[in-house]
Amino acid sequence: MHRPVSLLFLLTLAIGCATATSTRPASIPQPEIDARLVQALFFGGGTTAPATIEVRIANRAKTPIVVRRIAIDSPGMQQYTLDRGSREVQETIQPGETKRVNVFSRATALQGTTITEPLNIRAVVDFESGSASWREVVMLRQ
């Protein structure tokens, strides 16, 4: 009895994922995205530290774009890592304009608190323009 229901659920999920579109329209150039740690991490006597990431987005399109959500994390780090942080936003960026949005996270030391490793930041940004919606993913090293 449970098997047909589970199979139906998985089939519905697969169809939903297959029909979801996240491709940027060809008429919209890729937005310029940069992410930087606002201030140096300070672990003090503990193993965690607050981390503020400033995400800068420049609209190179001829139409406005809307930033809906920004998520950041730091894959592949050995000495420390950023907890996945995300922020829902409703930020319209006009053609030729650049906007900055802060995303708050926490850094966790994995191997002591003396940091020599450069920070890897992955930023995932969800956009809309007109009826189109898409996601851009960038990897940056700081």
Could you characterize what this model shows?
By secondary structure, the chain is mainly β. The protein has one domain: Sandwich (Immunoglobulin-like), CATH 2.60.40.10. The protein is built from 1 helix and 8 strands, in the order αββββββββ. The chain has one helix at residues 2-19; strands at residues 32-37, 48-58, 65-73, 80-82, 85-93, 98-109, 120-129, 132-141. A 4-stranded antiparallel sheet has the order 1-2-6-4, with no helix packed on it. It has a 4-stranded antiparallel sheet with strand order 5-3-7-8, with no helix packed on it.
Number of strands: 8
State the domain count. 1
Q: What distance separates the N and C termini?
A: 53 Å
| CATH class descriptor name | Mainly Beta
Oligomeric organization of the protein chains: single chain
Secondary structural class: mainly beta
Provide the CATH topology. Answer: Immunoglobulin-like
Number of helices: 1
- What summary fits the major beta sheet? 4 strands, antiparallel
Look at the structure and give the mean pLDDT. Answer: 87
What is the correct CATH architecture?
Sandwich
Q: Work out the helicity level.
A: 10-25%
Low-confidence stretches: 2-21
Report strand %: over 45%
Q: Going by CATH, what is the homologous superfamily? A: Immunoglobulins
Using only CA atoms, what is the Rg? 19 Å
Q: Helix-strand pattern, N to C? A: HEEEEEEEE
